[in-house]
Amino acid sequence: xxxxxxxxxxxxxxxxxxxxxxxxxxxxxxxxxxxxxxxxxxxxxxxxxxxxxxxxxxxxxxxxxxxxxxxxxxxxxxxxxxxxxxxxxxxxxxxxxxxxxxxxxxxxxxxxxxxxxxxxxxxxxxxxxxxxxxxxxxxxxxxxxxxxxxxxxxxxxxxxxxxxxxxxxxxxxxxxxxxxxxxxxxxxxxxxxxxxxxxxxxxxxxxxxxxxxxxxxxxxxxxxxxxxxxxxxxxxxxxxxxxxxxxxxxxxxxxxxxxxxxxxxxxxxxxxxxxxxxxxxxxxxxxxxxxxxxxxxxxxxxxxxxxxxxxxxxxxxxxxxxxxxxxxxxxxxxxxxxxxxxxxxxxxxxxxxxxxxxxxxxxxxxxxxxxxxxxxxxxxxxxxxxxxxxxxxxxxxxxxxxxxxxxxxxxxxxxxxxxxxxxxxxxxxxxxxxxxxxxxxxxxxxxxxxxxxxxxxxxxxxxxxxxxxxxxxxxxxxxxxxxxxxxxxxxxxxxxxxxxxxxxxxxxxxxxxxxxxxxxxxxxxxxxxxxxxxxxxxxxxxxxxxxxxxxxxxxxxxxxxxxxxxxxx
Length: 569
Ligand code: ATP
Ligand code: MG
Hints:
Strand order of the largest sheet: 13-28-29-30-24-27-14
CATH topology of one domain: Rossmann fold
Helix content: 10-25%
CATH superfamily of one domain: HUPs
Structural class: alpha/beta
Bound molecules: adenosine-5'-triphosphate, magnesium ion
Radius of gyration: 31 Å
């Protein structure tokens, strides 16, 4: 087992629980209050508000990114402004076009349209010029110290750092060396460019941070043009400023980097510099979101790719059958706040259920089937029963479902010895077969091993659904499918990929039982599906025809979400 595998299987910390009040993402929130204030103070024009979503193309987007996407796009929209999609691709090693493509697809699928599409790497020339400017100004220097030596001299939270012996190189020496770095005269790590700020600053980010490093690697966008690459903290403010971003919205871990963000733009005398505002990262119960961790799950084949329907990636949620509307609704409901909090994944599921209820057709599908023989029903007869397409949308009309002598019912709809208040099938009891007849169970036929072979029942022809029969009432209504025309389908019941690790409180572990595969029987109209179609399997929950595995000859469905949850809004 490689080191990586161990990491995947080992436990990871859950986000800390911390409740705090928030306001809706689309309503007024503290970010909008800051923007209003800036507009009022004339810092930015009201009609020029600009944001951006800046993913690093080193993995697929996840539900946490959906929050950042929603905040950036809805904020721009609120002010009639613009929001860019910018690939923050300043690290040549981890980035890939596959990720670039998937990110564009996911943002579009979520329903957002970027104003401009940019790559941080498109600005490498300008960034290089900016670095030269800082050197000329005397506020950047080339350092020969190794990464380890730099770390040793950096100091700690309680002790100041010490200045590098190379800090006082002349401007012309620095210019020459930086040029030599760029032209490939040095190996990786031999030299770096550092900002000259303050080694005793209480903020460690301000202790002469490295702003350029050498990396002899091919970049996915610029190829081998460069062997020096800007560090994130230097690149990001410049990228924002070049695009005319007014408000650079990011997550809380960048709060301590804000002084450096501002220092870079002030040192460059940038007019109309953007303002960075931080908000809390989204944490979800039963979910791990770090791209590094998700990539490990993919690489180790713990899951079936980035779009495995159990993954919290946007592509996984899409394959799971979640809708963009549900995800946007979720992002709106969780709102925007500064304090980190962990949201119950039940809220996301609630949003999905609410959205699907109004959108999908109902189908009869039988789980853990038990055969029913209607002994008084003619052997060669077949009827077509009318069933409503959607209980939530009466105007969607009815479909015809075949009914004949042999049927299947759910295993959970029969009890040989009924418990109290059990109104479904048991010997001697009469129930309504939804959309068909009243059926009485008379006899249980067993296999040699004692398991149930079939139920012998009788029907009452007078009780046909729609005939207006009012003779008597029954308490139980169950659904069924006709055995002769039933279609065997594979249903994958999906659970959480991450579950609490009892041995390590506060940690998650991989759920080894996150996918249960069953064969179920569906009414024949299920074959009208195409991959990606969603349904309510009557009384069971919401299911989607798997976008990769569904075939007419061998239909595969994934569970999206159950009918009900105990989650309280
Ligand atoms: P991860 O830590 O999951 O690998 P990241 O922060 O490195 O993610 P980026 O591609 O750099 O991923 O993120 C793009 C934007 O999405 C950033 O502005 C980042 O702050 C935001 N973002 C990432 N994760 C979350 C999250 N869980 N909640 C809210 N915003 C997030
Ligand atoms: Mg990142």
